[in-house]
Amino acid sequence: MSDPLIRIAAALERLAPAPAPAPDFTAADAFLWHTAPDRLEPVSRVNRVDLAQLVGIDRARDTLLANTLQFARGAAANNALLWGARGMGKSSLVKAVHAAVIEQGLALKLVELAREDLPTVGRLLAHLRASDQRFVLYCDDLSFSHDDQHYKSLKAVLDGGIEGRPENVIFYATSNRRHLMPRDMIENERSTAINPSEAVEEKVSLSDRFGLWLGFHPCDQDQFLAMIAGYCAAYGIEIAPETLRAEAIEWQATRGARSGRVAWQYFTDLAGRRGIAL
Q1: DSSP conformation letters of 137-153
Q2: Angle, to 10 degrees, between the axis of helix 260-273 and the axis of helix 241-255?
Q3: How many other C-beta atoms can be found within 10 angstroms of the C-beta atom of residue 108?
Q4: Which of 68, 93, 134, 159 has its Cβ near the most Cβ atoms within 10 Å?
C-alpha cells in the first residue's frame, strides 16, 4: 500500500476506531470510568475507611447498607442520594458500605463516574448491562448550575428512557444540595417564569427519582471527639482523654468547623507526631 493510502487508512481508523473489548470485571472490585477512549480502569486499592469508624451517621449507615445488601442479593433496591453537610462522610459511607458487602461474600462491583462524564453514561451502561455482575454506579459531588444540561443524561441512569436502568445497576450519588441545584437558582427561575411551578420542575424532578434521600448534618462536639477516639482505637494510638479533648477542640477552632473530615485531619496530624503511618 502506498504512503497516501496508509495515511488515509490511519485517519479513517482514528475517526471510527474499532469497538473496545469487553471490560474484564474480574480484574478488581472497583473501577473508574474514563473517556477518550472509553475504558473502565480497575482500582486495585480503594481509598476508604472501615464502616465501624463512621460515627454519628448511624441511620444513614444502616439504611444504605441494608439497601445495598438487598441489591447485591438480587432483590429490589432504590437509587440513593446522600446529601448534606460537607465532610460528614457521604463519600466514605458509599465506599465503606461496598467493602462491607464484599466482606459478606457477595459479589458487587463499584464503578465511579465523574460528573463531567455524565453525557457518556449511555455507553457505560451498555458495558454494564452486558455483564452478569451487579454494579453500584457512583457519582461524587453531584450538582448542576443553571445552564448545565448534564442532568438530562443522568435521567437514563435513574428510570427514564425506553430501556430504563439495567436491573444489575444501582446508582448512588453524593451532593451538598438536596435538589442538586442552588437554592438561589430555584428562586430565580420561579420569580422570572410565566409558570413558576413548571420552571424548576424538570430539574427538581431529578432528585425525586432517587428512592432514598439520606441527609447528613453537622456534628456536635461529642460526636467530633467520638470520631477521633474511634480512629485512635482502630490504629492503636493511646492518648490521655483530656489531652485528646484539648488538642481536638483547638484544632477544630483553627479550622472554624467540625466534621468527619476535620476529625480525620486532626488524627492524621496526631498519628504523624507519633511516627505512625496511616
Answers
A1: EEESS----TT--HHHH
A2: 120
A3: 22
A4: 93
> Domain check: are 149 and 176 in the same one?
yes
Q: Domain check: are 244 and 109 in the same one?
A: no
Q: What is the pLDDT of residues 39-98, one digit of tens each?
A: 999 999 999 889 988 988 999 999 999 999 999 999 999 999 999 988 999 999 999 999
Q: Are 81 and 108 a contacting pair, CB within 8 Å?
A: no
- The range of the structural domain enclosing residue 267 comes to 221-273
Read off the pTM. 0.82
Written as nine digits, the cell of 270 is 496526631
Answer yes or no: do 143 and 245 share one domain: no
Domain count, the chain: 2
What is the tens place of the pLDDT at every residue in 163-190? 678 999 999 999 987 766 655 554 554 5
Q: What span, in angstroms and rounded, lies between the C-alpha atoms of 52 and 1? A: 64
Vertex 176 angle, CA 174 and 182, to 5° = 125
| 3-state per-residue secondary structure call for 177-222 | CCCCCCHHHHHHHHHHCCCHHHHCHHHHHHHHCCCEEEEECCCCHH
